Amino acid sequence: MSVRRLADEAIQPSGFAFTRENKAWAKETIKKYPKGRQYSAVIPLLMRAQDQDGWVTRAAVEHVAEMLDMPLIRVLEVATFYTQFQLEPVGTKAHVQVCGTTPCMLRGAGDLIDVCKKKIGPEPFKTNGAGTLSWEEVECQGACVNAPMVMIFKDTYEDLTPERLEEIIDAFEADKGDSIEPGPQVDRYTSAPASGFTTLTDENAILKQPQSAQSAGDETAGTMIPPSRAGKPKTGAMETSKAVKSPSPVKASGADEKSASAEAPKENDTQADRPAEETEQTERTRTHSDRPKSEEPELRSPQLKKAKASKETQPGPETPVESERPAAKSRRGTQKKPR
Ligand code: FES
Q1: Which pTM does this prediction carry?
Q2: 237 pLDDT more than 80
Q3: 61 Ramachandran zone, left/alpha/beta (phi>0; psi -120 to 50)
Q4: How far apart are CA 220 and CA 250, in angstroms?
Q5: For the chain, what is the radius of gyration of the CA atoms?
């Protein structure tokens, strides 16, 4: 993305004022925000200024800052950050924004850019001779599933071919942009499969009533599907009682809450009173070997029982004490010295 600055002083108009209608709209928009939060209206106001003049001028930035009683630098930051604000004059009849992000590029955005270069001009942001058309490459416009696409003003034109884009540009140039239906430019419904529906193809099947309703001849019964019970709690807890319609308006006292609460088990009380470190240490030093026999889980598998019995009767090789262990051979000692 290029550096975004306000346009050259040579082309900046000397002043800016909203039209009467836009001024009334701007005042109403500012009122939508809480007192002291009028800065929040900066984007809608800048956008309105752009809609009015076609681009965001220095004078418009200053005017919006004044209206919102906002530091000029803050308004400038917003105007120069968001790429939807045009900081230079664009085509008066159409400014074509071609998406050049990966999905669109893979589906032919490069060819669409070539069309723009041919029909409008070789450079982005530069208007054609008559000042009616301009173009630029933009990042994803969120219509990737119908790539490639362009945006003109606030409408998107999707599933484009170079030929179709040429027709669209010609229509805007001839002031007939309204005759082009925005959205997919092929025979598909929004982003449904381009080759036609693959599921839910039979409308009758979708709208069919349940068998029971048809046989009973009751047309309304077919639409009365009872709500699912999925996710309904199946507990006998007091909170789920159907008798409880709303939270009790009476606040229980601390003493009442305590008396209604279940007592914590005694052993947990002791555990909870112990300092954390001590608790942790106790848990860590406790191993299977020092677990009392009575606490050992009973083995259920006959194979494991057999293995345990034989282990108890045949003592394994004694582990040699450290001093009796043969000295481990140094790895280095076994290696040949390089000559
Ligand atoms: S990549 Fe082009 S619209 Fe998303």
Answers
A1: 0.58
A2: no
A3: alpha
A4: 44
A5: 38
> For residues 33 and 252, which has the higher predicted lDDT (pLDDT)?
33
Which residue from 141, 150, 159, 160 has its CB within 8 A of the most atoms of ligand 1, so it is best to mutate? Answer: 141
Residue 317 has pLDDT above 70, yes or no: no
Give the ranges where 107-265 is alpha helix by DSSP (H): 109-119, 162-173, 203-207, 211-216, 254-260
Q: Which residue has the higher pLDDT, 278 or 264?
A: 264
For ligand 1, what atom is nearest to the CA of residue 100? 2
Measured CA to CA, the distance from residue 159 to residue 149 in angstroms comes to 6
Atom of ligand 1 nearest to the CA of 102: 1
The reply to whether ligand 1 has any atom less than 6 angstroms from the CB of 147 is yes
First-residue to last-residue Cα distance in the chain: 63
The CA 140 to ligand 1 mean position distance, Å, reads 4
Q: Ligand 1 centroid vs 99 CA: distance in angstroms?
A: 6
Ligand 1 neighbour 143 (Cβ under 6 A):
yes
DSSP codes of every residue in 272-312 = HHS-HHHHHHHHHH--STTS-GGGSPPP--HHHHHHHHHHH
Which atom of ligand 1 is nearest to 109's Cα?
Answer: 2
Average the pLDDT over 275-290 and give the result. Answer: 52
**Ligand 1 pocket, residue 138 CB under 6 Å:** no
Q: Which residues pair with 184 in a beta bridge?
A: 158
Give residue 240's pLDDT band: very low, low, confident or very high (50, 70, 90).
Answer: low
Phi/psi of residue 293, each to 5°?
-55, -40
Q: Is 140 a pocket residue for ligand 1 (Cβ < 6 Å)?
A: yes
Which atom of ligand 1 is closest in space to residue 146's alpha carbon? 3
Q: What are phi and psi of 138, to 5 degrees?
A: -125, 170
